[in-house]
Amino acid sequence: MTISIWRLSHLILAISSSLFIILAALTGTILAFEPISNQLKPYAVKDAQSLSISKTLESLKTEYDEVIYLDIDKNDFISASVVTKQGESETFYIDPFTAKKTGDIIEKAPIFSFATNLHRSLFLKSTGRAIVGIVSFLLFLMAVTGIILIIKRQGSIKAFFAKTIKEDFNQYYHVILGKYTLIPIIIITITGVFLSLERFSLLPETKHKHVKTKTTTSTPSKITDSNIFNSLTLGDIKRIEFPFSNDIEDYFILKLHDKEVYVNQYNGKIVSEKSDGFITLATSWSLFLHTGEGSIIWSFVLLLTSISILFFVFSGFSMTLNRKRNAVNIKNKFNKDAAEYIILVGSETGSTFGFAKLLLNALIAEGKSVYISELNQYTTYKKATHLVVLTSTYGEGDPPVNAKYFEKLVQTTPQQNNLKYAVVGFGSLAYKGFCKYAILVDSMLQQHQKYMPCMTLHKINNQSFTEFKNWIDSWGKTKNLTLNVNEPPTNHNKKKLSSFKVVKRTTINSDNSFLLELQPIKKRAFRSGDLLSIIPKENEVPRQYSIGKIGKNILLSIKKHEFGICSNYLNDLKLNDMLPAAIEQNKDFHFPKSAKEVIMISNGTGIAPFLGMISDDNLKHSKNYLFWGGRTNESYKMYSKHIDDAFYNKRLSGVYLSFSQGESQKKYVQNALMEKEELLSRVLKNKGTIMICGSVAMQNGVLKTLENISKNKLNAPLNMNLIKTDCY
Ligand SMILES: Cc1cc2nc3c(=O)[nH]c(=O)nc-3n(C[C@H](O)[C@H](O)[C@H](O)COP(=O)(O)O)c2cc1C
Description:
Blueprint: H1 5-39, H2 53-63, E1 66-72, E2 78-83, E3 89-94, E4 101-104, H3 110-121, H4 125-154, H5 169-199, E5 211-212, H6 227-231, E6 237-241, E7 251-256, E8 259-264, E9 270-275, H7 278-291, H8 296-326, E10 341-346, H9 351-365, E11 370-374, E12 386-392, H10 406-412, E13 419-427, H11 436-447, E14 451-453, E15 458-461, H12 465-478, H13 491-494, E16 498-505, E17 513-520, E18 531-534, E19 543-546, E20 548-550, E21 553-559, H14 565-571, E22 578-584, E23 597-603, H15 608-613, E24 623-630, H16 633-648, E25 654-659, H17 669-675, H18 677-685, E26 689-694, H19 696-714, E27 723-727
Parallel strand pairs: 10-11, 10-12, 12-13, 13-14, 13-15, 23-24, 23-26, 24-25, 26-27
Antiparallel strand pairs: 1-2, 1-6, 2-3, 3-4, 5-9, 6-7, 7-8, 8-9, 16-17, 16-22, 17-21, 18-19, 18-22, 20-21
Helix pairs in contact: 1-3, 1-4, 1-8, 4-5, 5-7, 5-8, 17-19, 18-19
This protein binds flavin mononucleotide.
The site of flavin mononucleotide has 24 residues, from helix 9 and strand 13.
Protein name: FAD-binding oxidoreductase
Keywords: Flavoprotein, Membrane, Transmembrane, Transmembrane helix
Domain FAD-binding FR-type: 495-592
């Protein structure tokens, strides 16, 4: 399985540093609370920043016998080290207006001391510090590769912050959090590396010396009258060190934000000054940006970023494990020049290989010689007569990673035989270019002299096994083959089953369909649009049905197929029988909370979730319309009471039925939509929601009709963000 260079680098970096990253992120999370808790203490004095230093010096002089230094920390807490009138040496926070003590210096809580040591050096002194510096750099590289991966996923730099399609919880939040925390991560890691280099004196600091300043003639009567003490405010300084003795050579040392100044203690004149070099300034900024000291908002950003890093480690590894689980180990029995059937796969995350393997096994079971490979491995095939391409689409309709060279290879590799081909696209309707790469492959092969289509392109949404099985059946028929494929066991096989009691059921109607109402034995949270996974006794493969929620019960609409194991199993159920099944959330098909207008489109038994939605008393915020297509008016009778009730209670504003075997003329849902194109274009224009449930064939027809309406009426492509589908 090919993996993109960026993803591989991202993964290798993660594997090599994850343990340290977890430690750094955990301790970082703890440490982010330190500046927050410090800032919340009451030692910052209002307006102190604009108070001139001379005022504070005077107050200090009156209040204490001697002052050693005055400090202003990042939280704007002012502390003084003094000798009191009682002769005690003390350091405490002061009010700079009165110089009176306001509190004792905050002692670092043991948890913060512990976390700081672990965070800085893993308790391994210099070795630990070096490791932390290196890990910081690795995390920086990971953030950079992460940004590249997001740009590739989103399609362009411009689309970096555009909507991300939710495919899977871990993948989605890895990307979403990544978008917003990669910049803080880059800041944290660069400053971390900088502080490590600084600590090991590896930075080329230019040494600035004290430069003597020229003295002026006037001498102030009091030291605090001097220009420098009057003109500077507490906001300008970080620390004042007081002269050690009365010696004229002992100065006030003022540490400002960008320089150090020596001031004569008798005349208040600047004796010399030294500018901070770039490295000193950068170190001070790095400390602030890395620790958040002095800013609650930035500390909060650091806190969220540290938590996100922990999530990245967790979600990143679970995605990798998932991919590993999905990875299909395929061994070829036949070589490329001996096989009659060639299967080529285009896949980014491995799921298409799973489908390809099903096809491979089914063909081998029929005694066929088959060779399977990736699209990037396209080559000559001496004995082949059939080519099947199964490919997914990535980015904005781009090829998956293992298909990047296919286009070129097809053009440059001569093929001896004429081959019949079929292309199956795996994609998602949530993206603009649904199966766009498969469409491209199909048209490439169409133009190729050696390839002849044996079936039109087939597109599969959301890895639907049912859709794939339908395709395999039809493709097999073109070769007079009966191909047997079984759905591979998925996670829902292992889901915990609950018991449901049959409380109502209808008899089978002229369409072989019936309604089943089930009562959960234990309280279960679910909504219309969720799925009920049923594992019929005779077979371990689960079958999913869309749920309509009626009160606290589940309503299913089922079509009985002659040889359908599950539908026959359900049809055999009688009142009060118990059914083991599992509810699965299907958030993407829940009724929208905020849409002003909602159009529900279904055919056949696809109406079930909508029957639940329109029975909900809370359905007052939107105007709702239902389109339904069935065979005859007789087919509709089973649902009519639910729909009449909703209409009567104003939960439905319009119902449009189409009958494919109607008395007067054949009519499909698509025809009804065209008749109501004004309504549809209005809902599309006003960003309402359109929900589709039923057969894939109906879904494809409906989407085509909606595309036409959008193009003709709104002059715009169909906005897929407004469409929710649940088709099978
Ligand atoms: C980042 C990303 C981009 C995608 N882009 C498209 C797209 O443009 N068109 C489409 O039909 N499907 C798109 N998909 C859906 C995948 O093609 C689909 O999930 C497919 O079944 C994945 O197969 P694979 O695991 O073999 O790569 C995208 C999925 C992801 C995660």
